[in-house]
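Q: Hi! First time doing this. I have a protein sequence and I read that you can turn it into a structure. Is that right? Here it is:
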Amino acid sequence: MTTHPSGARAQPPTGGARRAVPGLTACRLCAGETLGEDDPRPGGQLERVREIAASGHARLTVVDCLDACERGDILVVRPIPDVRARQRPVWFERLAGEDLTTELQGWLSAGGPGIAPLPEPLRPLVLHLQQQVPPDRAPGSADVNAGV
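A: Yes, that's right. Below is the predicted 3D structure, encoded as C-alpha cells:
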C-alpha cells in the first residue's frame, strides 16, 4: 500500500480495476472550527475526513482555502465521474463531529451525489452558494496536498 499526500493509505485495486468513488475536498484552514477545542478527537475533524479517505470511500483533496472561511468546516463532495455531467458538487458548512461524519461516510460509501439520497442529518448543512466559485478556486483545480 502507498500513502497519499493527504495521509490516507491507498487501497489496492481489486480485480485490476479501481472502483470509482466520490471526491472529497476539505479546507485545511477551517477544519476543526466548529468544535474547536471541545473536539475530543486527536487531529480533530481533519483526521475524521482523512479516515474516510483511508477507508476507500472517497478520494481526499486538502486545500488551504475554499473562500468560505466564515462558515467553518467546509467540505465539498464531488460526484463520481459517471454522474458529473448531471450532478454538481455538494458543499457543506459546519460538518463536524462523529455523528455527522459517520452520516457523510455512509453517504459516500453508497455512492454520494447523484447516486444516493442525501441523509436527512446532512441536509441543513448544505451550503447554497450565491455566486459561482471562480475556476481557479474550484475544488479539484488545485489538488495540492503538500504539507498535509
